[in-house]
Write a structure and sequence with these properties.
By secondary structure, the chain is mainly alpha-helical. Helices cover 80% and strands 0% of the residues. It has ten helices and no strands.
Length: 201
Amino acid sequence: MDLSVKIRSVAEQLFFKCGIRQVSMDDVSKNLKISKKTLYKCFSDKSELVKSTIIHHSNEIESVLENIANTESNPIRQLHLSTEFAISQLSKFNKSMLFDLQKYHPQIYTELVDLREKSIIQYICKNIDKGREQGIYRADFNKQVVGKSFALTIHHFTETIIEQPKEYSPDMLNEVMQYHIRGIANLEGLKMLENLKSESK
């Protein structure tokens, strides 16, 4: 495995466990049993390591979601599986990691939010196209507006869940997704949603 990949992998584990601010370049090098000089040959500073790690993690999530979209032909089931994956990811997220990104690496945080928003909009628009082709989503709405609205809703909910874990649970994303589907599905799509809910019980 390439050394940069190893470094990023260890940094990701430490960031998710301890938060970003609490993890120093010393911590990363000690965990890898390499010198700081070797570490800095791969990443010029901590900010570069944070950016590389966060963007890579985001890309991995996109890859999983893309795989779900490519392998699940039913668009409603696709959204259900995507939501279950998102819930599993949120359950592992460290509250301090989000706080550290916002406060100490605002540029990286903004870039991450922009990438995630564009990715969600694209994902939802493709899902809408698939649902319309199969005759289970309505045709009387603007998919770009719905995609943007959904992306903003998910952004707000995920950050609220991370920041206030006692009041909000990752499972609440299921309600958000069902709300979304009920807004775009026709009668046939709503029947599918109810059948899926019955199967999940």
